[in-house]
Amino acid sequence: MVSQELIRRLQRNSLDLREFIVNDLIGVGKVGHLGGSCSCAEIVATLYFHKLRHDPKNPALKDRDRFLLSKGHAALVQYAALALAGYFPTDELKKVKSLGAVLQGHPDMSRTPGVEANTGSLGQGLSVANGMALGLRLDGSKSRVYVIVGDGEQDEGQIWEAAMAAFNFKIDNLTAIVDRNRLQATGSIAERFEIGPVAPKWAAFGWNVIEIDGHDVAAIVEAFDEAETIKGRPTVVIANTIKGKGISFAENNAAFHNSAMTAEQFKIAVSDLQKQHV
Amino acid sequence: MNTQSLRTAYGETLVELGKENKDIVVLEADLGKSTMSILFQNVFPDRYFEMGIAEQNMASTAAGLALTGKIPFISTFAVFASGRAYDQLRQTISISSLNVNICGSSSGLSDFGDGSTHQAVEDVAIMRAIPHMTVLTPVDAVETRKMVRAAASLPGPVYIRVNRNNLPVYTSENLDYKIGKLYTMKEGRDVVVFANGVMVSIALKAAELAEAQGISLKVVNVSTVKPLDRQAVIDCVRNFRGVVTAEEHSVIGGLGSAIAEALRGVKGQPLEFVGIEDQFGTSAENYEELLRHYGLTPAAIIDAARRVLG
């Protein structure tokens, strides 16, 4: 049973992430991946502020859990979480994507404390996560690897190469999360490139599949807890989400995959988020 | 002449390294019996990962292993390493300069029977263009052993181009090997021939034949194509009347291009390339026949030397 206190705290953290994204990382007139960052805010908040063993003051902590954003374009939500956790000052958020910035357009481990690998070209993060899981297993480490895969990203063939490999190597120190927001850059997945049922695909590849509402923090906590008990095969959490969640005009709107807000839209976004404070 | 297998040298050196360092891990894409990485599996099954016929996943998985402190070697044919897994080598390995070592086996035309799909004539151009990537082409089995060791110790990514066929052994066990060093194989007076891989052997034959024709060739083994020591190249050609490059690779983007880049701005230094003239490979019954077909011969090197001498 997930406590009401934890639920309230993680909901608050998720709201904090969205406010950093809207106010600091995007603002008015700057393009940014608003939709795909907001769809996984609860997942990222639950990882950084509840599940991951990590130390913002020592990003190289030996026995840390690893988190990878295979859908690297959602970097904004990770940057918000890293700043909130204390990996770097929140002042850095406003400098995102500027020349010489700590925060690049896509996650860059050489520049950003807390980023574990370079991602952005889609389809590669799950493979990297497998490699980390195998390396940690060789060392007898208790650390776990978490990786968020995008819904559209499942078009990439390498995701399924990695899915087969995780099964083949019986990787059970890894939890993959599919941010199933049902949109890709140019429209809905159903209209642009229908990939059919998702959960049965992963099940057919030999994975333990848990399907949840990806905005329900209690369900996310329970899914991550359950994944840790599954031995001998990998677990994927299919998180049904809403792209642009929390910002009225961006919800389920593929136009906000990566675009700028007008001054008017920015005001609405700020007000939408303010209303979510309890 | 004593010939040895470069790919066996590769596999055997992996085993030696594996005994010395428990962090060495080896990944293979179902070609272990050709690349000879299989030798590692026989001794260290727990640290050998058969990744199936999926080179992209192999490359990114190696990145993940490197990120937990392992030293991965990934092996496949050169054409698949550089082509199939290009974006993976670029994004997850090279941008963050991870210690992942890539064996491009059956390189150049050395897989003579399998034809254009399996012959890598552009891999050096591809790999050289990736920032942070070191690109090596060993001349023989002895140099291959030293390179594999050097690659394991070098923090960033290394691409090693390994010939499928046994090649004559020219380098000595005692020779001090360093990535980036130029090795003079034969002194000369008129023209410098920069060669690597199998072309060193062919350049040495050319030098012998040219001597009788009154042309003195200096032959230099450029087994490190990148990083190339620009000043060392400039110093090497000083007081010579011309430069010829010889490579088992397209003339676009390989050793010839690297030498031309190094010599840019140097006045009065005519340069000629011997290589594959912007074509794909093709099947042949043996390696020598194929090398001749593409003009990778002592005669071609002598002709090129005559052209630079004017």
Rounded to an integer in angstroms, the radius of gyration calculated over CA atoms of chain B is 19 Å
User: What is the CATH class name of chain A?
Assistant: Alpha Beta
Number of domains of chain A: 1
Helix content of chain B: 25-40%
Parts with pLDDT < 50 across at least 5 consecutive residues of chain B? none
**Broad CATH class of the largest domain in chain B:** Alpha Beta
Please give the largest β-sheet of chain B.
7 strands, mixed
Q: Give the helix proportion of chain A (percent range).
A: 40-55%
Which structural class best describes the helix and strand composition of chain A?
A: alpha/beta
Largest sheet of chain A: 5 strands, parallel
Which second-level CATH architecture of the largest domain in chain B applies? 3-Layer(aba) Sandwich
**What is the average per-residue confidence, as pLDDT of chain A, rounded to a whole number?**
97
CATH superfamily membership of the largest domain in chain B, which one? Thiamin diphosphate (ThDP)-binding fold, Pyr/PP domains
Poorly predicted ranges of chain A: none
Q: Would you list the SSEs of chain B in sequence order as H and E?
A: EHEHHEHEHHEHEHEEEEHEEHEHEHH
